[in-house]
Amino acid sequence: MGLFENPWADQIQTFVDKLGSQHHYAETFGDSPNLTIAEPGPHVINNVCGRVKCVVLLVSGRPFFIEPHVPSIDALAAAWLLGTEGHGIADVLFGDYGFTGKLPRTVDPLPMNVGDPHYDPVHPFGYDITANPIESN
Q1: How far apart are CA 80 and CA 20, in angstroms?
Q2: pLDDT (mean) for 84-99
Q3: Residue 104 CA to chain centroid, in angstroms?
Q4: Which of 10, 72, 106, 127 is the most exposed place for a label (fewest CB within 10 A)?
Q5: CB contact at 8 A, 97 and 91
């Protein structure tokens, strides 16, 4: 069986994938010539997200260029570096806790030519989302 083959694929309704930085994310060993997600991240997104509802949790200490993958992702959360409070993300993902969030900065397109007449941010400053907890029966 291959690395991403799943014998229970017909029973999976939602898939959550945690993507992020390599072990070293800063200084010498963390230097990267680009801002793309490292493999196997793109491979998993391309092979799984088109088949089932797909939630991607991006855990990193820096921004990543993910725009090519966004159309195939149902939900994306940029969690940055969670530290000891990672369980808070699980509470939200499983519907135990509602949330409200606003972007503290603009998410720029690439190339980032702010001020050009055709400049159109991916998500503007203050872009927001709200979700309520899921009520269980």
Answers
A1: 9
A2: 81
A3: 17
A4: 10
A5: yes
